[in-house]
Amino acid sequence: MTIIGWIVLGLLAGIIAKILLPGRDPGGLIGTTLIGIVGAFLGGWISARFLDHPITKDFYDGQTWLAAIGGSLVLLIIYRVLFGHSRSR
Predict the structure, then answer these.
(1) Rg (CA), the chain
(2) What residues contact 7, with CB distance under 8 A and at least 6 apart?
(3) Whole-number Å distance between alpha carbons of 52 and 37
(4) What DSSP element (H or E) covers 14?
(5) Which phi and psi angles does 46 have, rounded to 5°?
């Protein structure tokens, strides 16, 4: 999978993470999208490096999607914990 494939996967993973973890985000749509992209890369790296599940080059592989969504969820939670209360409601 190319870098463009990872970016598209990250965009979709960010949307799915937002659906799974609804609520107000300090960064809005753009922040959540960027978190999704970075989370996809992070999830893929963690999966390959520490969990001994190398990411395949297939865009439609289930493990790749789970790693990307998991990485996005983790980053979204960390982002909300760190910056969630700095925005006035």
Answers:
(1) 13
(2) 37, 40
(3) 22
(4) helix 3-20
(5) -65, -40
C-alpha distance from residue 74 to each of 47, 53, 70 (Å): 13, 18, 6
User: Identity (one letter) of the amino acid at 42?
Assistant: L
* Residue among 4, 10, 1 at smallest CA distance from 58: 1
pTM, 2 dp = 0.76
Cβ 43 vs Cβ 53: under 8 Å: no
* pLDDT for res 35: 84
**Sequential DSSP letters for 23-81:** S--TTHHHHHHHHHHHHHHHHHHHHHHTSS-PPPS-TT-HHHHHHHHHHHHHHHHHHHH
Predicted local confidence at residue 86, as pLDDT: 53
User: Which residue bears the tokens 């983790």?
Assistant: 74
Q: Is the pLDDT of residue 39 over 70?
A: yes
